[in-house]
Amino acid sequence: MPCSSRLFDEQPLTSAGLVSSEKASASYLLSRPGGGHAAVIAVGGAPESLDARPGAVTLQLLQRKGFIKLALKHGAWLVPVFSFGENELFDQMENPSGSTLRRIQDRLQRLMGVAMPLFHARGVFQYSFGLLPYRKPIHTVVGRPIPVTQNPSPSKDDIDTLHALYMEGLTQVFEDNKKNYGIPGDKHLNFI
Predict the structure, then answer these.
(1) Domain total for the chain?
(2) Domain for residue 36, yes or no?
(3) CB of 35 closer than 8 Å to CB of 77
(4) Which of 14-23, 37-46, 77-86 bottoms out in mean pLDDT, i.e. has the lowest?
(5) pTM, entire model
(6) Residue 190, in any domain of the structure
């Protein structure tokens, strides 16, 4: 009997439309003839999860410009999306930048490519402690699409200009909807 080193067959995932988050995979999706494909990217990635805690609205976006360059190369419109309530699903141990815990988490993230937040929420039969998320709603709001003209060789200025437009669009989605989801008026998105 042949032995396989794969833990599961990847075919069901790819047939459902899921692909790797690598640049080549997103580029492949966006370059398909006839269009009709969208790449949904969690821009902040693993490092952003280390700052996710109830009440936090900090996004790792200032230095994340690869998706902007990809959009320009393929002429793919950008759509700002914000999900209210995601950070309320779990509590996380305090891990401010510079703390011993955060240094360990950052090192593990660099070595393994996966962030290791230390979180807890509720249990199966009780609500005081466990690894299941709290029963809180998540409301995803989709902003206005940002038209992008295809540019196979975008300049740094082209990338920076579109990046600024995207951050403005995301800020608008947040500001226009925060009162609907219990966010205080004096709370604003924080880009790092």
Answers:
(1) 1
(2) no
(3) no
(4) 14-23
(5) 0.83
(6) no
